[in-house]
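Why this split exists: single-chain examples teach little about how molecules sit against one another. For that reason, every record in the complexes split bundles all components of an assembly together and asks for one structure covering all of them. Below is a record exactly as it appears in the raw files.
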Amino acid sequence: MTDPTFPTMIDLAGVSKAFTLHAQGGVRLPVLDRVDFAVRAGECVALVGPSGAGKSTLMRLVYGNYRCTTGSIGIRHDDEVIDLAAASPRTILAIRRRTLGYVSQFLRVVPRVPTLEVVAEPLRMLGVDKAEAVDRARILLARLRVPERMWSLPPATFSGGEQQRVNVARGFAADYPILLLDEPTASLDAANRDTVVALINEARERGAAIVGIFHDAAVREAVATRTFDIEGVRAAA
Amino acid sequence: MNDTPLLQVEGLSKRFGRIAACDDIGFDLHDGEVLGIVGESGSGKTTLLRCLSALIAPDRGTVRYRMRDGSRRDVFALSEPERRLLMRTDWGFVHQNPRDGLRAHVSAGANVAERLMAVGARHYGEIRERATDWLARVEVDTARIDDAPRTFSGGMQQRVQIARNLVTHPRLVFMDEPTGGLDVSVQARLLDLLRGLTADLGLSAVIVTHDLAVARLLSHRLMVMRGGQVVEAGLTDQVLDDPQHPYTQLLVNSVLQP
């Protein structure tokens, strides 16, 4: 039952996640229990549920940053479905380069790399030539109101809001088929929040499958096509 | 992208008396991949690096390398001249202490040029031009090309060592704590340089470090060693953000967050 126009991009089946803390005598912290979760192209699914329920954990599992305890994480990559839970590091990196974009809550800064290059890097890694990648970075930074005089500086000394906007620009630089957004509008003012909402909607309209955590209800209503309540798959502690 | 690994390691073991420095280690390294090896002092990571790069022979196991002509050869079955040629052209080795990788009493330019001459470059003007070009790429003031590295700071020496290694366009570079012993600000500059160079040149690299931040920044994949064994391996951010083995968890939780 696949709709060729809006194929299933993310398909989690029976995914559980528990953390085992060896320093605490091997105490086991179950977080998610048998999650079935699918997202099609052109959908934006907002994860909802209380803090600590496992929203970020679910997102990190989809990115291949956390390893699931059981289950499979199907990702459509180059017209093929690959189980991230069983994929080699090399395959996961290829999927991240071309298919899977992730805007985390915080920018991980590399010393000395100027803002413009930080934003252009995902495109450069796709083989886009430097001039074109930098043009795209300029457009995004301007839309997100990062002052032009800052573009040549490394973002290490920027404020939290400025770093977050650099992070968002980087996440939207390449047109990933799948986008994972962890609080992309936290610490942004109203005008920039509206810009991020517009970017998300544009990405969805071009057919991206989007999963996000949006604590701001107005943002969530403006971008989400449906919600997924994490409470229903939360592991009993 | 070539699907045959550039380096394929199987069952590699090396003992020093009763101590197993490396115990049954195996992994594949592909083109353009940077593998980090982390672990504390005495975990066997430097011994492993020295075995991989044919500086010492293991007791057991194989290290197969895909040569430029596509043939795959066991590096310990190569003849001595073949192995030396490989080490001088297709491989690089960046030592923690630049003194181990440089000749302190010849000029910076000659240090870089020496590797070029080893592969047959003879035209003086061309050799000097390429040496100058590489010193500039590693951000060494080219006005100092005729000065001996012993008159340079530690960070500069390390950059000359990197230029010396990369000038022959190696496909695989081994690095042993390349940022160890440098000030933090100098480290940042070197890290940024290494990160840029490995990405731009599509280099494969094996980097030994005890610094998890360095490993995160430079490597795609990570192997965690303890007591001569690999206790955990995988994608760098997976190993650091969701460590499974008790020892990896201890390592990750022992790092101070600045």
